[in-house]
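Lecture 7, part 2: worked example. A protein chain together with pyridoxal-5'-phosphate.
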Amino acid sequence: MTELSTNQDFIDLEDRVAAHNYSSLPVVVEHAEGIWVTDVEGNRYLDALSAHSALNLGHRHPALVAAAKDQLDRSTLTSRAIHSDQLGLFCARLAGLVGKDMILPMNTGAEAVETALKIARKWGYLVKGIAPEQAEIIVMDGNFHGRTTTIISFSDNPEARDHYGPYTPGFVSVPFGDLPAIEAAIGEDTVAVILEPVQGAQGVRIPKEGFLPGLRELCTARNVLMIDDEIQAGLGRVGTTLACRYEGVEADLYTLGKALGGGIVPVSAVAADREVMEVITPGTHGSTFGGNPLAAAVGKAVCDLLATGEYQQNAANLENQFRETLEALIGRGVNEVRVRGLWAGVDIDPTLMTGKQACERLVKNGVLAMALHGSTIRLAPPLTITGEELRIITDALTDIVLCRWAAITYPMASARRV
Ligand SMILES: *Cc1c(COP(=O)(O)O)cnc(C)c1O
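Predicted complex, written out as structure tokens:
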């Protein structure tokens, strides 16, 4: 085989041998550090994609790399057939961070969601006393909880769902943030409501103020478990350790993932109090890799970093700057922006460009961002970013948007300029 050197060489190879389940930006990363990645041609980009917030602490955070290297020299995999000296320490740290009694460790986000759904159903049968096979779980329209067959069964995104049936029954979908609709949907057999506190895949869709506290009250009143999927919104992204705490809410179960692995290994978990988690007994649920010593050591180090509160604080401190610079584009090529912490959804005027085109133009300006449906993009830089560095992102976006907007709004003036 000839030597691969350019971005295109690697992309062509991938195209031939890797399944086409993504349409990736044309950047081939060779090296990454902090908020920066460098491609195989030596170009440097500011990473405002952050692997969908799995890189909240940046690429290769020194404390996390050190924890991983140290653990590599001691033990990496045990399975839960025996114990490791890391699992208990990790679970204790994570339980403390999220304010729950117990942790069930898994690997990917989808597995954590599956685990939470299984716990909720089992709690429904064993504790709430629902008749066999009747458990119902309420989900939100526009949800994204992962890619397994059960999870896509209650997705309303045709891309995620079509041609994968037959679908898992037992789910009812209601409009996101619609408390009366949830109240109406709760019946005798309802065991849980699962939601994202902010819908990341929808472009940082934020429910109106009061929805989360209202849902908390409703779930308590109707003896229904509130399952809060914090896999993308949690662990500092919005300026609080858990996104539901932005409104002072505590859920019954949390699903965590993405940033929990520190950008090094996949680590996910369900957190719950003892009376809920106790429905899981030996042999009734598991994972070969879940809670392995390497994952636990990295996860523990992630918890230690987040316990300082400094990453959450930085996200909270930069929220206003982020919002103000993005809102300045409204009416000049941007229709709407939604910002919480260091997380922004930007709806670009669809007559100017698609989200995909916007992200391709941002690549040329040295910034990586995530294209979503239509003309919406998502910005989510590592929480280690400074205000000055954040301006690089908003300047790059301003540049690509204003350029197109001016060309369309004042065609003669831009024609003369060329
Ligand atoms: C990414 C994500 C998941 C799924 O996580 P995977 O690790 O990709 O399986 C679940 N829920 C939310 C909110 C997510 O953003």
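The mean pLDDT is 97. The chain has two domains: 7-59+310-417, 62-307. Keep this in mind for problem set question 3.
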